[in-house]
Design brief:
The chain has 72 residues and is α+β, with helices and mostly antiparallel strands. The chain has one domain (18-70). It has helices at residues 4-11, 35-48; strands at residues 21-28, 51-58, 61-70. Strands 1-2-3 form a three-stranded mixed beta sheet. A hairpin with a 2-residue loop joins strand 2 (51-58) and strand 3 (61-70). The protein is elongated, with a radius of gyration of 16 Å. This is Gcv operon repressor.
Amino acid sequence: MWPNWCRALRQRNTICPPTLYIQMTAHSPTRTSGTPFEQAFNTLCQELNAQGTLRLYSVSDADSSESVSAVR
């Protein structure tokens, strides 16, 4: 259920500001296998009207990581 102030904004076709922040870390065998994680994470953030950060760690390169941000 939307808060009253957000419901009023939605009635005026105004997007409510995100009130939820999601942070997730994913480990994968290679960097290229992170794409399904990114897509699912971005979809989750959109559905929840959330901001989020996804960090992808490659098992083959333990010293490096990629960071993907989803902002709604």
